[in-house]
């Protein structure tokens, strides 16, 4: 299976990708994780990407396309999370896969309203040491804003601040939402309500795939 998850920031794409990967043994290609790793290591790519991420705008296509092309080369099955984010990237992905004699088998769009997303993301915290992500509303640490594993103070990522979230949502609607129609025309798009229990949403995802 070659699966793409689409949805606004905070829609649960990453959470569902991880659960599906654990259940079905399919590797995740998460550009967000790759970019954050490069930023943390202060690589040349990370330095370029950091300013875009902090402002809540899309990282340039040429950077993203190179990252994904390298990641997909040796994989027959995968879950894409965070790429493509615009029509140019979607078309580049089609060409990448065509060159590898592959194609997407499923595209799932997680539909969720803006205010629910803002509520979710402003409650999200990150451990700066082990990178574990918590949510103060539904997955809090045992001690108030302290990592269970590392015993260090949790932080709020710059891209989880409300003003940045609202800008990210605007960017999503302008750049990424057109992919819903793009993949709908290809006949491989399915829509899932993104609000609700993680387990219930995962069950909906698996019913689509199986």
Task: Summarize, please.
With 210 residues, the chain is of the alpha/beta class.
How does this structure look, described?
This protein is an alpha/beta fold and 210 residues long. 50% of the residues lie in helices and 14% in strands. The chain contains nine helices and seven strands. It has helices spanning 13-24, 31-41, 44-55, 61-72, 87-99, 114-122, 162-176, 178-186, 198-209; strands at residues 2-6, 28-30, 78-81, 106-111, 124-126, 133-135, 189-193. The chain has a five-stranded parallel sheet, with helices on both faces. The longest helix is centred in the C-terminal third of the chain and has 15 residues, at 162-176. The N and C termini lie close together (10 Å). The model has no long low-confidence stretch (mean pLDDT 90).
Physical arrangement of strands within the biggest beta sheet: 2-3-1-4-7
Alpha carbon gap, first and last residue = 10 Å
Number of strands: 7
Low-confidence stretches: none
Which secondary-structure class do the elements indicate? alpha/beta
Q: Count the DSSP helices.
A: 9
What is the averaged pLDDT score?
Answer: 90
Helix content: 40-55%
